[in-house]
Amino acid sequence: MKVLLAGGAGYIGTHTAVQLLKGGYEVVVVDNYDNSCPEAVKRAEALAGGKISLYEADIQDRDAVQAILAKEQPETVIHFAGLKAVGESVAKPLKYYRNNINTTLSLLEAMADTGVKRIIFSSSATVYGEQNPAPYNEEMPKGLCTNPYGWTKSIMEQILADAATANPELGVVLLRYFNPIGAHESGRIGEDPQGIPNNLMPYVSQVAVGRREQLTVFGGDYDTPDGTCLRDYIHVMDLADGHVKAVEFSAGHKGVEIFNLGTGKPYSVLDIVNTFQQVNGVKVNYAIGPRRAGDLPVCYADAGKAKKVLGWEAKRTLADMCRDSWNWQKNNPDGYQDA
Ligand code: NAD
Ligand code: WQD
């Protein structure tokens, strides 16, 4: 079976490509390298000992996508292609709405024209918004998002659901990721943010490796056990395995199905810093600073549905996540630029 990964040269896409190839799937990647590079795809091929058909194209370009789908005829598309920096989305909302929504429309239209009937979408826990109490389950109504990035995910979920209602042949799987961290255990592929990292783990790793002076912990006065925010961190390889299970699931299902991909276990910012230091024997300088606007105190998954329906659950521990993040960072201090 063949799977096309739109945005597959990125962080989650490359790890998923490795696990799909290892699972015997044929893999096609289409990316415009807006936030990635071909080197990552080469390394994914080497890790899996397989071949990836690689195309450079903007997924917003419907004709280009249609030509690739017609040529490759994948059974399933996984839609990773999107812009994901929350802060930038506040400053440049139209850029985010244009790219994220147009990629989704373009993919759906090109799929309809070429007879591809299954799509798996990279959604986010952010769609639960501020109103729902954690742990979040898939039955909860979506909430009000706190930034344009989150709204693009919420709107794209709606577009995909409406497309499935109109076309009963379409199968849509919405995967709501929690906080992916970690890297392939080889240290050959990992997260390679450009500029100052927005997310916690890349920041922690860059402080540990000496690229940044000190981590600012955003808020130490939340109503949580140690005063810092709680999140559901999930190893990117567990996430990749979740995608393989979702591909298997989508082969036998039409309509829309939603799954949380998280561990169901909340950890604090200080849990991350302390575990990272202990597991890796390195120092992470940090100081408690003011809260960051828009942060929820607590966000974690009810991971029961994915276990029951997909037969998937996260297996890797927080220590594994910290070890593998560091292994990637220390072997590639400047990310793929080192190649
Ligand atoms: P990433 O930036 O590493 O990967 C996204 C890929 O999409 C990049 O390779 C980028 O070049 C590509 N891309 C973007 N716009 C494109 C376009 N118009 N045409 C072709 N390619 C395009 O991000 P990631 O962490 O791998 O995330 C993958 C998906 O999962 C994204 O949609 C993201 O919003 C979603 N997601 C990520 C997280 C997270 O914390 N990493 C959490 C929830 C959801
Ligand atoms: C985690 C915790 C911060 C950086 C975001 C998006 C979400 C999803 C995942 C998708 C929080 C704290 C962080 C730092 C800190 N995205 N922190 N100092 O905000 O839970 O989720 O990424 O594509 O939609 O909103 O993740 O890694 O930014 O923060 O103290 O320098 O670490 O306050 O408590 P977040 P994060």
From TrEMBL:
Cofactors, names only: NAD(+)
Domain NAD(P)-binding: 4-324
Isomerase recorded as keyword: yes
EC number in record: 5.1.3.2
GO molecular function, one term: UDP-glucose 4-epimerase activity
Keyword DNA damage tagged: no
GO cellular component, one term: cytosol
Pathway: Carbohydrate metabolism; galactose metabolism
Any GO BP: galactose metabolic process
InterPro entries per the UniProt record, alphabetical: NAD(P)-bd_dom, NAD(P)-bd_dom_sf, UDP_G4E
Pfam families, sorted: GDP_Man_Dehyd
Reaction(s) this enzyme catalyzes, per UniProt: UDP-alpha-D-glucose = UDP-alpha-D-galactose
Alphabetically ordered keywords of this record: Carbohydrate metabolism, Isomerase, NAD
Superkingdom of source: Bacteria
Subunit structure: Homodimer.
Family as reported in the entry's similarity comment: Belongs to the NAD(P)-dependent epimerase/dehydratase family.
Protein name: UDP-glucose 4-epimerase
Gene name as annotated: galE
